[in-house]
Amino acid sequence: MAASAMEVVCVTGGSGYIGSWLVRLLLYRGYTVNATVKDLKDEKETKHLEALEGAESRLRLFQIDLVDYESIVAAVTGASGVFHLATPIIVDQVHDPQKELLGPAIKGTINVLTAAKEVGAKRVVVTSSVSAIVPSPKWPPHLPKTEDCWADEEYCKQNQLWYPLSKILAEKAAWDFAKEKGLDVVVVNPGTVMGPILPPTLNASMLIIHRLIQGCTETYEDFFMGSVHVQDVALAHIMVYENKAATGRHLCVEAISHYGDFAAMVAELYPQYNIPRFPKDTQPGLLRSKTGSKKLMELGLEFIPMEQIIRDSVESLKTKGFIS
Ligand SMILES: NC(=O)c1ccc[n+]([C@@H]2O[C@H](COP(=O)([O-])OP(=O)(O)OC[C@H]3O[C@@H](n4cnc5c(N)ncnc54)[C@H](OP(=O)(O)O)[C@@H]3O)[C@@H](O)[C@H]2O)c1
């Protein structure tokens, strides 16, 4: 079903890897989109969006800072739906976790939800992550992880896993806000998102396959729960927005799998690269499951399989000149 061009939706983080795909699919479905970027003067954030089909007449760009409430109000004004993707993503060197990650993630989420409530948006889709589901060392080891599982805040603090902590606390803030203020919120929790790249720069998840191809032996023990095609993640956002029966969290992976499974398939498909070999279980205790994303499957999402995720990622890395 195509949306009416009169229906305006806002995508925060519209310039990003997933955000660009979401803007693309929303325009394709006929929505008018208010997409946010951090710097309107930076062509690296705007040019790929302006080139999208439908952008000329139905895309408006807004500059926001997650901690600047008024900038967010301008972007959501007139929107009947809000997709909140923007968040700082730093997984390597974090110097000041509060300032660099936790503050903007949590305050930004509250600002976006407050503004959405103020302008009368009817539904907000919040992009959380599997990082709000794992690491969860206390989850019963005989059960596959589901949307009922929350990542362990104390474990994250002790191990200085600041990005997962920011996703846990931002998602919890969203649920608290929804309950207290009566705002309709649904959440998507994607795994490691890969596939064709629209922006000119590489985001953190595409860096994972880029680094693997260059021989990196990191196993992402606390971060990985499965891969997912970027187009499916964008589609999942639209499905949970449009389907009023969708409620709660939605794990979004093509299957619950280990990073080693992913790396082994990259090695099989692309023997010309020197892909490291990993032990069978790179995520000790994580039970594999082909139906981990049952909720999204029941809404009608047919996940693109891992083989295609890898092929689309590698071909895109080649086309964009990141690998030869
Ligand atoms: N990629 C994955 O594997 C994955 C998995 C699970 C969940 N997620 C979630 O999906 C969302 C999008 O991630 P992504 O992979 O598309 O990453 P990305 O390409 O880095 O996008 C992040 C976006 O947030 C914006 N942003 C960051 N800090 C901001 C601030 N202070 N004010 C305003 N905007 C700000 C960025 O703007 P600039 O481009 O200007 O920096 C960018 O548009 C995030 O919420 C992330 O946690 C991603």
Automatic annotation (TrEMBL):
Source taxon at top rank: Eukaryota
InterPro entries per record: Epimerase_deHydtase (IPR001509), NAD(P)-bd_dom_sf (IPR036291), NAD(P)_dehydrat-like (IPR050425)
Keywords, comma-separated and alphabetical: NADP, Oxidoreductase
CDD domains, per the entry: FR_SDR_e (cd08958)
GO MF annotation list: oxidoreductase activity, acting on the CH-OH group of donors, NAD or NADP as acceptor
This protein's record includes keyword Plastid: no
Domain named NAD-dependent epimerase/dehydratase: residues: 9-246
SUPFAM superfamilies: NAD(P)-binding Rossmann-fold domains
Pfam families: Epimerase
Protein name, as recorded: NAD-dependent epimerase/dehydratase domain-containing protein
